[in-house]
Amino acid sequence: MRIRIIDESESGKNHLPVLKLFDLSLRLCSVPLSVATIWITVTNKQDNNSYGMLKYNNLSGLKYMVFVSALCACYALVAAACSWVRYLVSKAWIFFVSDQIVAYLTITSVAAVMEIYYLIYNGAKEDSWSEACSSYGRFCGKVKLALILHVITFCCFFVLAVISAFRAFSVFDPPSVNSQEMQGDGD
Fold first, then answer.
1. Cβ(31)–Cβ(71) under 8 Å?
2. Nearest to 167 by CA among 9, 11, 3
3. pLDDT band, very low/low/confident/very high, at 180 (cuts 50, 70, 90)
4. In sequence order, which ranges of the chain are alpha helices (DSSP H)?
5. Is 43 helix (H, G, I), strand (E, B) or coil?
6. In angstroms, what is the C-alpha Rg of the chain?
7. What is the pLDDT of residue 7?
8. Which of 67, 82, 75 is closest to 156 using CA atoms?
9. Taking the chain, what is the end-to-end CA distance rounded to the nearest angstrom?
10. Is 126 helix (H, G, I), strand (E, B) or coil?
């Protein structure tokens, strides 16, 4: 495996300014999406005369989504600021690893909230859990909206993970194929 040495002027030519602008746009776009997810989730509560008050903090999956959304917003701001620091831009592995971690955390919180939404919408008859959306319709609607915003945030971080992977691995040459290996494969 060979590593290509790229000087500062050549690296700017390899990574198009359009890609850098798209990267920055996705990072900055994920911030209001994460903040909106947090706001909708934290302010989500509904009172019912028969069953009582239902709040976001009654469900651990929603608390986890709020935590991950806060992490996403903070990381996106820091990464957007750091993407303009020339020293850190040359360290593509930092962005690659951190983008991967944030994307994985985001998809785990999406899965947790999807499970909660499924249970409050459909219930689990075998576990004697009835559905809650007929009694807490507004609460369910806000959970659905927060989930949609969080999925869009995940899509942003998924694309960012792909971009950072491209940047991290584009410094390597493709594997070379030995001509003797090619002749041996044909036999």
1. no
2. 11
3. low
4. 8-14, 17-42, 60-82, 86-89, 92-122, 137-169, 179-185
5. coil
6. 23
7. 44
8. 75
9. 26
10. helix
